[in-house]
Amino acid sequence: MKVEIEKDLNTLKRLLCDSDDVTFKTFETSMGKSAVAYIDGFVDKQSLYFAVLKCLYDAPLSVPVYEKLCRLPIPESVDMFEDLNEVLSKVLSGNIVLLIDGAEGYFCMSLKKTSMRAISEPPTESVIRGPREGFIEDYKTNITLLRRRIKNGNLIVSETTVGKQTNTSVAVCYIKGIADEKVVEEVKMRISKIKIDGVPDSYYIEQYLSESKYSLFNQVGISEKPDVISAKLLEGRVAVIVDGSPSVLTVPFLLFESVQDSYDYYSNDWRASLIRIFRIIGMVLTIFLPAVYVAMETYHSHLLPLKFLISLLGATSGIPFPPQIEMLLVLLLFEILNQASIRMPRFLGISLSIVGAIVLGETAVKAGLISSPAVLIIALSSIGIFCVPLQLNSVSTLRVLFVCVASVTGLYGVIIGAIITVGYLVSINCYGSPFTAPFAPVVTPDLGDGFLKAENFNQTTRPFSIPNTNRRRK
Amino acid sequence: MTSYGIPHTQNEILPSQNAVMIFLTSFFLKLSSLPALIAKELDTSAFIVIVFFCLFELILCAVVYFLQLDGAKDAIDKSRLKYPLYALMCLYFCAKLFFALGFIVNFVTNFLFESIPLYVVILTFMLPVVYLGYKGIKTIGRTAQFFFAVTVICLFLLLAFLKINLDMGRLLPIFSKPPQTVFESMFGYGLWLGDSLPLVLCKIKRPKKFLMPLSCAASYGLIVVVSMISVAAFGSALYINHNLFVNLSVFNQLSSVLGRLQYLSIIPWMVASIISSSILFWSASTCAQAFIKNDIASKAAVALIIVVAFLAIGHSDVLIDHSVGYLGYVMTGAIVVIALSVLIINAVRRKKDAKTV
């Protein structure tokens, strides 16, 4: 083929429907009539002129263009294409396409200059001690952050695109020789089978990577911290980085990972074990406390200690609603406040908190519409939700469900509900790993990183609960 | 096959899961209504009966474990006696589940809710039982493992802080009735025997040498100890404790701080009852699968039979009244026949396999 500038530019413009953000610039060089096509804002124009075009103006005619471009220190790589559709997709991905009249192909170079958010501490994963850098929306930067931590040739990054319209870049990362090849292949296969229009966030990929698609429970690990992801890669997990999302996904994911935190590994085992137990208590209280309160107050008040029962009766006397309606009302109130405070501008959020917590809560209690124990229980339960942010959705949904169950069937229903929930959880297998491992089934070597955490130097093996090909850490 | 090329091993369980299931089943069956029922007939001889029962169970556990290691279900499947044996086993497990439900419903309606309709209790109770049974023995085993720690903590809190006037003299006379009467009556409680028998239908994966003997000894040892404590505490009044385990929790030092501690006993008791019923449901439906080839259909049929039969009777007291006596002898006989038949079938297959090699 031979490039015909006028004709090819017209075709490109037609394919792009004369979109105004794509720049086409025609000029003369020593090679003859030339043109560049790029999206303004994506490209470092100074590098384009000083590093590329200037060389083309001055270069002797004897050297072929492709070789000339390849010899330049910037850009890092130059590809030659013969298909205009490929050229189009490269332009849309932020590359520059150089057209030279009579050349045997179109030259494609990457000289990206994108404005992005600075690397900062993720707001949802703050730590007292430990690295504070977090992933950002640019996936190349995210891969670099991982590479900085794992300087090893076995860290494999396999890239692909997902989304018929968005062509979003997705990178599958794993450490060869540690991660199980079957899991890697399964992840790649699932990603390749995704047929969607676009990927606005990694959640869209997460849904396809989950074993049970309609499950209430999060079955894919998420983190915005490179230290967490690199530690998971070292355990044999596979990470998935999605362009445009700071949340990196990991599989296989175990339920107990929701209770683990990066801070556990940067503090001594005593402290780590204690806070893990507190987190679990927090999660259990979040789910069951409102339900047990409703069950006890409605059906089984005889099980409560006498003193407690007297103060409870004193606090709830005169409340016009039955305990179950009262509890659901307080839950509703909390969810409304929560949703409003997330979406409100920050400066308004503070005043909303005051209105919500003091004005609404205290006034409602004083007016005798809701009782103070109900507010106290929901407050305690709501704080507990944030002990396990990875299961925030499931925990807050279960809390409401259990209140409904307790309203009708009391403690009996709550126990039955808990057993069904556990039965469901233990039946999940996430990429060949039992979701509730290392507790059900008991995987003895992994219990060192369970409720009680052993010191890091004693964790000499990779988890047996998840498939990996090299068990020894040293 | 799974998507990772690993064959499905739904009927394979780990030795620890096997041990935990036996523990929960024995704890549910032997520490609830049994001591009161025996005491009603045999007074303080209840203790020696429970000791004999535990010895019987230990022998049965050893037989079942041996059969599990050998994969006796495969031998039954290939045997000519497959259909009659599965029919007997299915009937036995269904009957056991049916009567166990009677006691559970009785407890819920008498203790937790006074005026709750029977169908509400039975339908809500059957939900987790059918769900776990549908998911399979592996899921039941894992669920049992998950709740094991909770059960042990509750048991510890209840027994360690027990504040009760123990008089070992109340255990005497060991034979408050003539020994012959005790032994004759003993097998009339056959409904409470055969805790480990349903597990004969599953295989043990990665067996461990000392785990099973130790855990079985610990499980039945605990039952003997709790029975001893209860006879020493209640003496001849033991028969009024319709749920011994829950009633024991009234006498606890922590009660003054935490209120009446029945909830600490209700939780493990409910967990144990659901796990035991699920195991029975799973084993009954696995046997029914020999006749109804479809897995879901066989499970639905067993669930339907149990629920409809229960609702037709309409009152759990009828079941409790008929659970002791002739039915017990039949159940004891069924246990012996099933265990012996499976042993013989397995021995024949071993012999055949040895010849083939």
Quickly describe the structure.
The complex is a heterodimer of chains A (474) and B (357). By secondary structure, chain A is α+β, with helices and mostly antiparallel strands.
Index terms:
heterodimer, A: 474 residues, alpha+beta, 3 domains, five-stranded antiparallel sheet, 12 strands, B: 357 residues, mainly alpha, Amino acid/polyamine transporter I, two-stranded parallel sheet, 15 helices, disordered N terminus
Description of the molecule:
The complex is a heterodimer of chains A (474) and B (357). Chain A is α+β, with helices and mostly antiparallel strands. Chain A folds into 3 domains: 105 residues, no CATH class; 115 residues, no CATH class; 163 residues, no CATH class. In chain A, 45% of the residues lie in helices and 13% in strands. In chain A, a hairpin with a 5-residue loop joins strand 4 and strand 5. In chain A, helix 5 crosses helix 8 and helix 11 packs antiparallel against helix 12. Chain A is elongated, with a radius of gyration of 29 Å. Chain B is mostly helical and 357 residues long. Chain B has one domain: Amino acid/polyamine transporter I (Up-down Bundle). Chain B has 15 helices and 2 strands. A two-stranded parallel ribbon of chain B has the order 1-2. In chain B, helix 1 packs across helix 7, helix 1 packs parallel to helix 9 and helix 3 runs antiparallel to helix 9. The N terminus of chain B is likely disordered. Chains A and B meet through helix 6, helix 10 and helix 14 of A and helix 6, helix 7, helix 11 and helix 12 of B.
